[in-house]
Amino acid sequence: MNEQLTSYLRGLLFLFFLLPMSVSMTAQNFSVSNLQGANLNSPTSLQFGPDDRLYVAQQDGTILAYTIQRTTSTNYQITATETINNIKQIQNHNDDGTINNLNKRQVTGILVTGTASNIVIYVGSSDSRIGGGGGGADINLDTNSGIISRLTKSGNSWQRLDLVRGLPRSEENHANNGMQLKGNLLYVAQGGNTNAGAPSNNFAFATEYALSGAILTVNIPAIDALPTQTWTDGSQYKYDLPTVDDPTRANQGGKDIGDPFGGNDGLNQAKIVPNGPVQVYAAGFRNIYDLVWTSDNRLYTWDNGPNGGWGGHPANEGGGSATNNWIAGEPGSSTNGPNDGPVNNQDGLHYVTGSNYYGGHPNPIRANPSGAGLFTQSGSGGGNAGVWRTSKNGANPLPQDWPPLPTNLANPIEGDYQNPGVDDPSLFTVNNSTNGIVEYTASNFNNAMKGNLIAASFKGPLYRVQRNGSGGINSNSSVTTLANNFGNLPLDVTAQGDNDPFPGTIWVANLGNDAISVFEPQDFGGCGGGSNSQDEDGDQYTNNDELSNGTDPCNAASMPADFDKTFINGFLVSNLNDPDDDDDGINDTTDPFVWDAQNGASTSIPVDYPLLNADPGFGFFGLGFTGLMSNGSTNYLDLIQDEDNSSTEIIAGGAVGLLTFNNVPKGDPYTNNNSQQNGFQFGLNVNQNTQPFVYEAKLLGPIFITPPQQYQSAGIYIGTGDQSNYLKAVVNGNGPTTSIQILYEESDAIAGNQQVNVPNIGSASEVRLFMQVTPASGQVQVQYAIGNGAVQNAGQPVQLQANVLNALQSNQSLAIGIINTSVSSTSTFNATYDNLSVQFSGNNPPP
């Protein structure tokens, strides 16, 4: 994921941007370091095995077994590595069941069991492709591709046996994830196929399947009792989930050809078989990544809640009459649904109290098997081109053995959408993706953390959950931040007990910077009595710096965000208190590229920022932005509005590569207002001799769910990097009128303003905006396209002048950015971007 890192940033540990948050003071101090010698590529899951080795899974299906030595009191070194590639050898398929030679698998969960001499690894894997996103892209990935495999070692080689095949896999990247073994049952975190229970554009219009969005159980002895079979590629397997009889696929031997693979948009989905070896244990989860059975026999998980604008509530939401029909406008996605407010993007901690537990994420097929039907849409044209199948007869029939579960298993509550932290039973919610979860069982700190839960959050924190005797929490203050700003996109976490090789340590897999963070307990007292100018926890930040950031001055693992890691007067200084975060000699209040010491000089055409997690791996959110549209007087931290300091919510990255701004804040750079928020940008090295190039961005719609107010807009710009000199091309709205606005400012004065009428552009599902730039002449032609339609000119070419022309033709760097404006704070809207790129026009080579 990090192929596009520039040379000057390649060795730099990216610290994910985190606005200051309030945390409790604790007496638990951990030092943090990176595991030395790890050569990783997107680690997703990790666990120590009975042989004292650390097993780490990568997203591509590779598993690495590390032998580790503790070299000093805080450093750990890999002394030997074994690479296990058996999972990557699994045969892949398309959604019609045909073979696809991808040569890799998405792995998001491993479980290491057995003994030191007989290691057993359970591995969950699925199709490695990621669809959904812009335009509802269906890329033909196999929605029945989930497999649970068991690896055992024989001599010097590993043997793979596929235990269960045909589990659901969403069109996005939700899949079968973490696992826990308790008695004879393997508990599996199975991701959902939808955002909030209904088909939607961003999830390629898939519905929930009979076995999706739940905690599943797999009866291991029952599976082992089955005969071992051999697949067409020579691999061995035990149990294929039976599927409904796809009416579009020929049968062979009483089964659809290719079964159990190829979910075919649900027409070939797996069935729930009463008394079968795979069952739904607890329902109502959108995408739980991990789960843990604690030492006091309690089950916990943290669910990733729905994203605003990504999909709404089911049709007939509220109970046992919910259906899988697609509804135009996707109510509940960005606006109220019939019975609930819009999705709130909260991630909830769940104490799963039993098999009747419901987490709040709907599954119409399980709620209403006799009436939910199935929505299928595999071509272009969005939801309007799809078909809601309700009959086994006619032109678009359901399978003859529909529904995929007996009607007497209907669970009506699964038709009820419950907003996280509002209606659902979660103990606690946070507004960022929280995934790996583990119990801390060591007796360090006089048992103060024993029985606590530790959870890894994608946005940076490592959460600590102090449970009460009933399994819940006493209050929100029971959840604190144990560590933060230690890595890039923490994903999974494991901890060592008293009898393990490294007692009391915590180990975190960081997806973004391909590293393993190691937290070493520092069992000593006396912290908290020093002066603010001291550094009592030894993390090299003064107590005062930590207190102003809301981090813990008595915990070396709790550090403030710090981009440059530069010492001032003997101490590191946080972003909040460092006046020049990239050490380029320009004060942060006037630096348009505050996280780029080269100020764009090392960024050349072509540029492709897909807005995927950790790609390109640097800048804000790891997406490549290195600054904000500056107004010359406000620190850049105050130009970022996010949920921690406003009602605005930024959903950055994500598996499908989207950047969403929910509730766009008030602000606009228009003339001398210069109040623009969230104007993220990067610098580009161009000059008068650069060949013509095109800047392209894709916006997902509908941009305006309700009539826009007060000149709301979303789009792209180029300029000097400040709020006084720029050319923007935006989808602009004011009441019922929407258009493409091409606004040009020089020194806070309007140098050009074109309004180009484009019918229905505000309600289009996808809009592409282009700036065709000719550096030699300084002319820019704005263009647009609706979805995959023809590219058309918007208005007349713009002749750049003065400051913006100088930024284009000299070597000072041209700012390339995205802009969302809302003059009024009383009316909000959402803006979602899918991919930014700068390419030479017509694929012209550089001069």
Describe the structure.
The chain is mainly beta and 847 residues long. The chain contains six helices and 50 strands. The chain starts with 6 loop residues before the first helix and ends in a 7-residue tail after the last strand.
Short description:
With 847 residues, the chain is mainly beta.
| Poorly predicted ranges | 1-26
End-to-end Cα distance, whole Å, is 29 Å
Rg value: 27 Å
Helix content: under 10%
- Major β-sheet, in short? 9 strands, antiparallel
Keywords:
847 residues, mainly beta, seven-stranded antiparallel β-sheet, 6 helices, 50 strands
Map the helices and strands.
Layout: H1 7-10, E1 30-34, E2 43-48, E3 54-58, E4 63-70, E5 76-84, E6 92-93, E7 99-100, E8 106-115, E9 118-126, E10 146-154, E11 157-167, E12 176-182, E13 185-190, E14 214-219, H2 220-224, E15 229-230, E16 236-240, E17 251-252, E18 255-256, E19 278-283, E20 288-293, E21 299-303, E22 347-352, H3 364-367, E23 374-376, E24 387-389, E25 428-430, E26 434-439, H4 444-447, E27 453-457, E28 462-465, E29 479-483, E30 490-495, E31 506-510, E32 515-521, H5 543-549, E33 567-568, E34 571-572, E35 607-609, E36 627-628, E37 649-653, E38 658-662, E39 680-684, E40 693-700, E41 712-719, E42 726-734, E43 737-746, E44 749-757, E45 766-774, E46 779-786, E47 792-793, E48 798-799, H6 802-809, E49 814-821, E50 831-840
Parallel strand pairs: 11-16
Antiparallel strand pairs: 1-32, 2-3, 3-4, 4-5, 6-7, 8-9, 9-10, 10-11, 12-13, 13-14, 14-19, 15-16, 17-18, 20-21, 21-22, 22-25, 23-24, 26-27, 27-28, 28-29, 30-31, 31-32, 33-34, 35-50, 36-39, 37-38, 38-50, 39-49, 40-45, 40-50, 41-42, 41-49, 42-43, 43-44, 45-46, 46-47, 46-48
